Amino acid sequence: MARRVAVIGVGNSKFGRRDDVSVQELAWESIKEALHDSGLSQSDIGMVVVGSTAYRGIELYPAPIVAEYSGLTGKVPLRVEAMCATGLAAALSAYTAVASGLVDIAMAVGVDKMTEVDTSTSLAIGGRGGNYQWEYHFYGTTFPTYYALYATRHMAVYGTTEEQMALVSVKAHKYGAMNPKAHLQKPVTVEEVLKSRIISWPIKLLDSCPISDGSATAIFASEEKVKELKIDSPVWITGIGYANDYAYVARRGEWVGFRATQLAARQAYEMAKVTPNDIEVATVHDAFTIAEIMGYEDLGFTEKGKGGKFVEEGQSEKGGKVGVNLFGGLKAKGHPLGATGLSMIYEITKQLRDEADKLQQPLKKYIGLVHNVGGTGHFAYVMILRR
Amino acid sequence: MQIDALPLSIKYKIKYPDEFIEAVKRGEIVATKCKNCGSVYFPPQKDCYNCGKNEMEWIRISNEGEIMTYSIVSQKPQGFENYEDYIIGIVRTKDGINLMAWIKGQPKVGGKVRLTTDNMRIIGEVVG
Ligand SMILES: [Zn+2]
């Protein structure tokens, strides 16, 4: 039987264009904060997993340099990668190490510095985030294109509108403006979203997350360690799920939701013995606005096809049925691929500890959910946390 | 301070099946079918993960299809900068294979296309 595991420390760097730091300095920002948050030092950590995609930065193998800079040499057995879900993949690895009894305390660090290459290069690397040989090479798919294919189909099948997608962006920017760590801190209107430059129709610039630099860290501990260290606000991981889907997007079928998310969510809900109705606060992977709408549906917050209505009715606002992406989401807070999933754990941990200040969701049951999608629905990870 | 890092130039060679490239040059689209268990693969593969055998035959895919979804690419990636805006679609062929194609003509979800090639990639020409 696996051991119970809690999050006992979290850190999140400022997200944005971070020309002021190297990748190791950026990683240290969140590592330092997480160590401080947990009251631990490097010598207490049994294992460190580094999550990074690294392809847009000069350091293609970032794990050793991050470890060296942060005083964690000797603790890092691997770097993990699951595209945009790299952060939760790293968290899963660290969680598993603790749950299995291999170590008592493990750290997952997510970091990516994505602005070291220009936008055209970045699009070409992102476009390879599918099946290069049979997609990008012939057709010039970009990352926004993949999500656009889902958006077009969702609009045709369920009548989802560009205005409803724009509302996701408006909500994200509203909260991003209240989060000093967010990449984008300017509110936007529906009209501004609709009039913004077309990237890959129907996806426009303001439907898309920015290209960001950032890091996030979470520290996981066993129940015995939580007691021994007298941690006063552990946040327990009660459910975890993961799944993947075909790389070649045409093969997946339907294109109105992510099967990987549906499977991961079912696994996580079963393990946590909760239903979607129990979730009060969540991060939903919103690399593009359509992704959040599909996320509401795939996670069971609303029926399939009603995601557009869900945001329109304010059910995902702060104080709504499920407060979603209250720190600004990928859309406004930013999406440094390796950091994103761990930054989501940071947010939900802050929420469950009632430490989210102006962005605090009112909670009764203290149950939160983290949802991190890799690629364009290639991977999905869902984690359920509770205090 | 930011200074220029050393440039990194990567040149790749990539392997495609001869049969696929030759078919595309004839304006045809082909998939592989397992002689043992009948599984059909697109993208084509030479190994059958269903039964573990690797005895495949090449089969021709129907050139009639329906647009399942599409997107018009305005912000082009490296390697495609010199192209006009292009339309990427997912097409379901009459024989039930889903594939990616460039769409020529006015696309709509549910619209019919005739599949052909431009000697390199699959093209779905809108026919109604
Ligand atoms: Zn077979």
What does this structure look like?
The complex is a heterodimer of chains A (387) and B (128). Chain A has 387 residues and is α/β, with parallel strands linked by helices. Helices cover 37% and strands 19% of the residues of chain A. Chain A is built from 14 helices and 12 strands. Chain A has helices spanning 23-38, 62-69, 86-99, 119-127, 136-139, 143-158, 162-176, 190-195, 223-228, 259-272, 289-298, 307-312, 329-333, 337-352, and strands at residues 5-12, 47-51, 78-80, 105-113, 198-201, 203-204, 213-222, 235-244, 281-283, 323-324, 367-374, 379-386. In chain A, the strands form 2 sheets. A 10-stranded mixed sheet of chain A has the order 3-2-4-7-1-8-12-11-9-10, sandwiched between helices. Chain A has a two-stranded antiparallel ribbon with strand order 5-6. The two termini of chain A are 21 Å apart. The model of chain A has no long low-confidence stretch (mean pLDDT 97). Chain B is mostly beta strands and 128 residues long. Chain B contains 1 helix and 8 strands, in the order αββββββββ. Chain B has one helix at residues 18-25; strands at 30-34, 40-41, 56-60, 64-73, 86-93, 98-104, 112-117, 122-126. Chain B is globular. The N and C termini of chain B lie far apart (58 Å). The relative contact order of chain B is 0.18. Classes of the chains: A alpha/beta (387), B mainly beta (128). Chain A binds chain B through residues 19, 58, 116, 120-121, 123-124, 126-127, 131-142, 144-145, 148-153, 156-157, 197-203, 248-253, 255, and chain B through 2, 5, 14, 16, 42-43, 68-81, 83, 86, 88, 90-91, 98-102, 109-110, 120-122. Zinc ion binds at residues 34, 36-37, 39, 48, 50-51, 53 of chain B.
Question: What distinguishing features does this structure have?
Answer:
heterodimer; A: 387 residues; alpha/beta; ten-stranded mixed β-sheet; two-stranded antiparallel sheet; 14 helices; B: 128 residues; mainly beta; five-stranded mixed barrel; 1 helix; 6% helix; 38% strand; binds zinc ion
